[in-house]
Amino acid sequence: MKIELRVKNVELRANKDDSLTVSGYVNKTGQWSEILGVTKKFKEKIAKGAFSSAIRKAKNDIDFLAEHDSKKILASTRNGSLNLTEDEQGLFMSAVITPTSYGRDYYELIKSGIHRNMSFGFRTIKDSWKNIGSGLFERTIEELELFEVSVVKSPAYSQSTIAARGIDLVEEVEIPEDVSREKTKEKTNMKIEHRYVEVPKNEVEVRQEEVREFNEGLRDLNLTSGNESVLPTAVAEMIVEKLDESSPIFAKARKIRSVAGSIKIPRETAVGIGSFVGEGKELIEEAFSLGEVTLTQKRAGAYIALTNQLINDAAMNMAEYTSNLLVKRTFKAIERSILQGAQVDEFAGIVPNSEIGKQTLKVGASDQEALDTLMDMSLSIHPEYLQRSQFIMSRPFYNRIAKLKDAAGHFYVQNGFVNGKPTYTLFGLEVIITSSLDAGDVSHVPCIVGSIEDAYAVMIKQGGKMTKVQDSQHALQGSVGFLFDIYVDGAVYNPDALTKLEIIA
Q: What sections of the protein cross the membrane (predicted)?
């Protein structure tokens, strides 16, 4: 596995009580490095949050070494003697050095100030590049895997000693040739064994390399705990992005990130009004109350099994193939839960919510009555929310409305643009068609109008992952299972921003 090393001229301090405790910053996040590179020059910075994510997701122990020498472990996260945290400034480390002979020697070197610089070894998972001109580039490392931190004497690399220790080092970071000066380019390499920035020459090479690397990754992935192994984070993140792209309803909902797994959203339930008072008189405190919407964590996901023959012989991008299949199944479940969820293990859906305003339409209503009702629904939305509102319709109900024309023979449903994207519009509002609403029979809700953004919240707990499953049953069948699951929850937090249509007898 190839890794990158960075040395920062930051001070490592020793405690004055001779307790063999040292501490200091390994890297200051968000700050540009000195000029790096040999043939092509660049400077880089570590994005805020990258270290905390790496520490949280670390699969192996992170060691505190002397001069990157794996035989000279001073402390480790394994026994808690090394503590790594990311704060507002960057990656901070504190360590209680194990009192071996070389441990005491290096403590004295640190205490005396001979060794005071910090270095860290890492593998880049996600980075972005920007051409700033004059042959200079800027690199932002957004996600990384952290292997070790080291105390070093000199802030310069010592390639010969590193090579002698068997470290497979990235000696020259390759800069993409197509980096634009106006826009940052991003390239995520999914290869598991060797992570580095690649420079594909053309689109065909990009596709071939992605196919080869991901398929090799699937074959070579080692199981880490019995019969399961977590696939690269980049793959799981790709699925979350596709989920957002595939479901406009999910995409429009308000997203709330939570590490704890639950969150409460305050909501005003009763509001007083202000008043005018004479000079010297007290303002009367108006009574108001706050309710709350609590979001906990629900598990959503999808599973697919692929044969080893397909993985080995596929001439297509298996990353995209498996991602698309899992996304289609996952977003169907999440979208339907946003709209219809009523079970304990589902979201609190829009349709079952009794606080949302409701319009009714008889099952045998005329076309004009249907149009009048839809107009009333849009007019019932507060102007503050109306500009961000949508019509959400089931396919059968949309098919009926799409055929209606005005007196001049023009269709009420028009082709339009919302946020620069072509879409259907009705009364100037975007129309979203979904199979997650009912067709339009008696007691059905085939249409919802309002602003999902202002009405519905989705909590996304960090830790969504894609997992490879290869147990004895799969082995006998010559297949490999892939599971994507994510812990989420959703609920209406502002029912005033929505109204729904119910079909009655």
A: none
User: Which two structure tokens, joined as six digits, stand for 392?
Assistant: 């959400």
Q: Minimal CA–CA distance to 451: which of 495, 417, 489, 415?
A: 495
Structure token digits, residue 334: 């999440």
User: How is residue 464 written in tokens?
Assistant: 């969504």
Question: SS3 for 139?
Answer: strand
Please state, in angstroms and rounded to a whole number, the distance separating the CA atoms of residues 271 and 289. 7
Q: DSSP H helical segments within 296-393, as ranges?
A: 308-313, 318-340, 367-379, 383-386
DSSP tag of 173 = P
3 state SS of 448: strand
How far is Cα 35 from Cα 44, in angstroms, rounded to an integer? Answer: 8
Residue 88: both structure tokens together: 């507002």
Domains of the chain: 4-176 (no CATH), 232-505 (3.30.2400.10)
264: CB partners within 8 A, 6+ apart: 292, 293, 294, 295
Taking the C-alpha atoms of residue 82 and residue 74, their distance in angstroms, rounded to an integer, is 9
Q: What pLDDT score was predicted for residue 419? A: 60
Is the pTM above the cut of 0.85? no
Can you list the alpha helix ranges (DSSP code H) found in 247-317?
248-252, 308-313
pLDDT in tens, 426-470: 998 999 999 899 888 899 999 999 999 999 998 887 556 667 777
Indicate the pLDDT class of residue 498, thresholds 50, 70 and 90.
very high
> How many Å apart are CA 207 and CA 407, to the nearest integer?
53
Kindly state the DSSP code that residue 496 receives in the 8-state scheme. Answer: G
One-letter identity of residue 437: L
User: What distance in Å separates the CA atoms of residue 91 and residue 149, rounded to the nearest whole number?
Assistant: 10
CB neighbour class for 492 (10 Å; exposed up to 12, middle 13-18, buried from 19) = buried
Instruction: Determine the Cα–Cα distance for residues 250 and 453; give it in Å rounded to an integer.
Output: 9
Cα angle: 147, vertex 485, 209; to 5 degrees: 60
Q: How many C-beta atoms lie closer than 10 Å to residue 419's C-beta?
A: 6
Torsion, Cα 441 444 445 447, to 10 degrees, reads -10
Interstrand relation of 421-426 and 429-434 (parallel, antiparallel or unpaired):
antiparallel
Structure tokens of 412?
């009420």
Separation of alpha carbons 4 and 6, rounded Å? 7
Mapped onto helix, strand or coil, the DSSP state of residue 110 is helix
- Cβ–Cβ under 8 Å, residues 135 and 154: no
User: Quick one: 451 exposed, middle or buried, by C-beta within 10 A (0-12, 13-18, 19+)?
Assistant: buried
* Residue corresponding to tokens 């919510």: 353
| Strands lying side by side in the sheet with 357-362 | 357-362, 498-504, 447-450, 390-394, 429-434, 421-426, 413-418
User: Of all helices (H) and strands (E), which one includes residue 206?
Assistant: helix 203-220
Q: Which of 140-144, 196-200, 252-256, 258-262 has the lowest mean pLDDT?
A: 196-200
